[in-house]
């Protein structure tokens, strides 16, 4: 069974000191590097939040406060601080992440009008990113998923992976949650398990 490692959004803005820093995010980087060193993957894919500066998920572009919610194109949208803007330092992958074995990069969140948490598609399920086509082309059947943040982009990437027919495993030690609310991370784990994601220790 061919397998791929999907590394979700290990970017400066989600790491320590970033615009949308995930608590303890930097702890996952040595773990992810060790996975790549100790395992043989047929493909290693990075996903990258890649927002235009006028993205509608940013509170600043809606005259709202960070943490508020609006309806954006028919779906609820949490208002985020400006983050991972195309071409900025914040959007770059963290320098400590070893990218020597990376075979592909998927950029998401490029459409101003709709956010994209999942590495597979936008939040409206209108536009695919090309990740599924890439994996199918390379006959990948098993996905191992790590990265940031567990309760948003990692969760939606993992559940979409199951929905697209992949055997899907999440490395618990390779992810951290934003925890906008204290139980968000825990709830995300339950939701992923309910949808068929295997959570590895």
UniProtKB/TrEMBL annotation:
Pathway(s) served: Cofactor biosynthesis; nicotinate biosynthesis; nicotinate from nicotinamide: step 1/1
Pfam families per UniProt: Isochorismatase (PF00857)
E.C. code: 3.5.1.19
InterPro entries: Isochorismatase-like_dom (IPR000868), Isochorismatase-like_sf (IPR036380), Isochorismatase_Nicotinamidase (IPR052347)
Highest taxon above the source species: Bacteria
Record keyword rRNA-binding present: no
Gene Ontology MF terms in the entry: metal ion binding; nicotinamidase activity
Keyword flag GTP-binding: no
GO biological process, one term: pyridine nucleotide biosynthetic process
Keyword line: Hydrolase, Metal-binding, Pyridine nucleotide biosynthesis
NCBIfam families per record: PRK11609.1
Name this protein carries in UniProt: Nicotinamidase
Classification of source organism: Bacteria, Pseudomonadati, Bacteroidota, Flavobacteriia, Flavobacteriales
